[in-house]
Design goal:
The chain has about 70 residues and is α+β, with helices and mostly antiparallel strands. The chain is built from 2 helices and 3 strands. Strands 1-2-3 form a 3-stranded antiparallel sheet, covered by helices on one side. β1 and β2 form a beta hairpin. The radius of gyration is 15 Å and the shape is globular.
Length: about 70
């Protein structure tokens, strides 16, 4: 059986526009299966979502982890 998922995802990543130099971090409280979860996402100036991070607790370390991950990319 041929697996085309990784190749398809790789092609989609290459088609995405380059992120702009200005971006910000959003924090949103969402409910997943009745549990309160915190969604962190980084968005560039034109609205392109760069990365998403979901966890059940809210803390400064989560935001810093996402920021470091983005800066390393």
């Amino acid at each position: 059986m041929l697996k085309f998922g990784p190749a398809f995802a790789r092609n989609l990543r290459h088609l995405r526009p380059r992120p702009t130099d200005t971006w910000h971090l959003d924090e949103v409280v969402i409910s997943i299966q009745g549990r309160r979860m915190y969604l962190w996402r980084s968005v560039d100036r034109v609205g392109e979502i760069l990365d998403i991070f979901v966890q059940p607790w809210r803390d400064k370390a989560a935001a810093l982890k996402l920021m470091r991950k983005l800066l390393n990319k």
